[in-house]
Inverse folding.
């Protein structure tokens, strides 16, 4: 199920595209939100509590520029798949200033819409395997797995330490491990470490690329050593 949004200042285009998406993707839609201006869209984006998987963005939004707006979206929702729509050929090259999956020339045909949706869904499903989703009261944060150094547990509170900062949320290590790849291992009752972020392994700790130490408990020492050596052997 996917959360989809459309931002287009042309009311007729907005309504028509909404109908087409419902017709083609009805069984896979969690929500479909429509916005006729940048201000209302950004306000909703700032307050949303769920991931936005697909965004249809008109480029010419009156006083606002859809390309610049898409850049803002990706700073807080990097997993969102952007599909640009426009009635003007002059924007074909300008859209490459920001990451996107498709450009649709108005009027939007069912064939072009199907192709755009297929590409967006395929890329989102591929991308989400490489990110960790953090849910908080403020919404959802997507952290690329390769930016995460380790997770630390303090009772029910979890802290994700990454190159992009520290993120606190509530959860269980068992649930977290289900979202991670095999490069993340439990090395302590209170720590999950990303082996790709380890510089060296010492008897009682890992030394990380962010110049911190992650402890290794006695009960996890053997499996931690085996996992680290397996990782090193794959690099050789």
């Amino acid at each position: 199920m996917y959360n989809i949004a459309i931002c287009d200042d042309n009311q007729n285009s907005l309504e028509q595209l909404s109908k087409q998406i419902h017709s083609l993707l009805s069984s896979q839609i969690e929500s479909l939100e429509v916005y006729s201006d940048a201000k209302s869209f950004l306000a909703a984006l700032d307050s949303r509590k769920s991931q936005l998987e697909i965004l249809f963005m008109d480029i010419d939004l009156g006083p606002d520029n859809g390309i610049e707006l898409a850049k803002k979206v990706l700073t807080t929702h990097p997993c969102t798949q952007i599909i640009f729509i426009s009635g003007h050929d002059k924007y074909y090259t300008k859209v490459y200033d920001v990451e996107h999956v498709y450009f649709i020339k108005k009027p939007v045909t069912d064939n072009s819409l199907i192709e755009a949706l297929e590409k967006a869904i395929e890329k989102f499903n591929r991308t989400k395997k490489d990110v960790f989703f953090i849910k908080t009261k403020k919404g959802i944060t997507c952290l690329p797995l390769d930016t995460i150094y380790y997770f630390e547990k303090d009772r029910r509170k979890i802290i994700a330490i990454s190159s992009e900062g520290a993120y606190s949320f509530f959860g269980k290590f068992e649930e977290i491990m289900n979202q991670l790849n095999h490069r993340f291992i439990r090395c302590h009752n209170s720590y999950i470490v990303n082996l790709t972020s380890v510089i060296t392994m010492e008897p009682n700790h890992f030394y990380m690329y962010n110049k911190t130490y992650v402890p290794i408990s006695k009960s996890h020492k053997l499996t931690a050593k085996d996992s680290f050596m397996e990782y090193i052997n794959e690099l050789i």
In short: Helices lie at 11-25, 38-47, 66-76, 110-127, 173-177, 221-235. The radius of gyration is 21 Å. DSSP finds six helices and 17 strands in the chain.
